[in-house]
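Lab notebook page, bench 4
Experiment: in silico fold of construct C2
Operator: M.H.
Input chain length: 179 residues
Purpose: comparison with the prior construct
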Amino acid sequence: MIRLFVAIPLPEQIRTQLTMMQSGLQGARWLKPENIHLTLRFIGEARNDLASDIDSALSEITAPAFTLELEDIGSFARGKRPHALWAGIAKSEPLSHLQAKIESTLVRAGLAAEERKFSPHITIARLKEMSSNRVEAWVADYAGFRSPPFKVDRFALFSSFLKPEGALYIEETSYPLEG
């Protein structure tokens, strides 16, 4: 069994920009720069034969390259407890189109359909036992955040290994976009 997800790896310039925000919130578990990515579809645990089928199916996807831009900073909460900080993605039809192609391809490969609506974001920190007031103040400090546009010319299949010091993500295979 291998734990998998499909994501867009981010350019170093964007990961550096996000990493430079990683302070001022004591107790936040900031993602390491090499782990910052844009998840398109979480797959979860998969048998090795299914992982091979997933790779084959994803390699058949064709879509044009496009540009993205990050905008806004926010937090996700469970009830009243914040549990993650994120950077948002400016509205992008090409991104939505790519994600929909990936979803339908994975369903045809035998995975159950994703029940949650795709909400493009980049997780930058995980939070535990954090007061919402502190999180709201941190988010307010970064109001109006925007990144420069960056080119997306591939997506990738990643494996994920959970460790006490945090997850280790490995880019297993990359799939180029056209243009």
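Observations: The CA atoms of residues 57 and 105 lie 6 Å apart. The two ends are 35 Å apart (CA to CA).
Next step: discuss at group meeting.
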